[in-house]
# Entry
Amino acid sequence: LSVVTQRALSLGDGEAINPADASVHGLVGSLAKEYAQWRVRLLDTDTLDETGLAALLRLPADAQGDAWLYRAGEFYRSQLLAAQWGPARPTRYRDGGVYVLLGGAGGIGEVYSEYLITRYRAQVVWLGRRAADAAIAAKIARLGQHGPAPLYLQADATDAAALAAACAQIRARYGAIHGLVHSAIVLADQSLAQMDEARFRASLAAKVDASVQLARAFGGEALDFVLFFSSLQSFSKAPGQSNYAAGCTFSDAYAQQLRQAWPCAVKVVNWGYWGSVGIVSSDFYRDRMALLGFGSIEPEEALQALEQLLSGPLDQVAYLKLSRARAPDAADGGTALQVYGPAPQQDLAAVQRELARRIAAPALPPAEADTGLRLLETELARLLFVQMDSLCLWTPATFTLEALKTRLDPQFGRWLAESVRLLELQGYLVREGEGYRVVQRVEADAWLDWEAAKHGWLAQPNLR
# Structure
């Protein structure tokens, strides 16, 4: 699968971009991980003539689904660079400023609002889709004890008219709007194979539609800053989160476009894992992220990071905490997460030779999974084969999937198709024409092997 966009992304050097297709980069990044057997390459080019397309055909496939940028005959890839904040600068927040937070009634928005109210006596306005309820009223009452109580306005951020009305109401009530924050999120995780369009759009619209409509509704205000809460998914693009990754890559690119057009500061923070507040603050996520080497971002340090981002020269930062040293291939879904320090001075010719070598080299296979996990998968496949054998599904040994489906209730059709796919990957079945043939038999003592092995797995938190 070869995917080409034209100037959907920017090198960050002020070039004009059209971010309308930037969400494709998040989608393709997740897709490449969900379909590891596919060969995927992704290019954003400044030209769609023969030169640009020929450049695409020279690229190797990328198991991570990361994009190449092609500009004036040169290839580029994005990297995370270790950032230094530099000396403290005057805050960009105003005493008594008016700040509009889309999604502000959520967990992270509430923490951020408390900081603005207690430290700057700010008037915070929350925009949200749902009607005001008891939970929102309780949050407003609690924050009102520290300063000006937040104002909650019900407005669907994908509705231009609703946002325009909210903007007019805020301006009429407070006289000015000083800052705009997009912190809305809809998590609707699911694999692409199982996700319907409505589920995909729900998560995507919270970033794409809402970002565009916010800009249209508030673009005429004399803002000090616009701040987009994005995610590390813009870089890692995890499997099962294609809709969210697509939304994040769009909002990052859209912020770049606004930065070129608007006089105020336009900033992006790509949050890592928040473990104590927000939509994934549960024991399940905390344990999972700890196993992956991610520590929890805590409110106080995150709010200080926002101060430095808003007042400093950097336009976009990814903020994450690592709980331990991480190998480059240890991130979720096999994603390589590398943090690069300052680049040493290098000979330009040597860099160009290395780039040419990488482009000409064949694609590397995905990094092998953990040994214990691979053994677990192998044993599970054996059990699956044995159980299906006990139903006499492998008699005769040559069959078609459609014929196999007629032997069980129709409700098991999708399960049968997936089981056959997995057993083919594990080498128990081989495809022959339109059908399959059993090429490897399993003894019934597979269950004994499972019982013997599982005690070791139960002792490992990531396999338990």
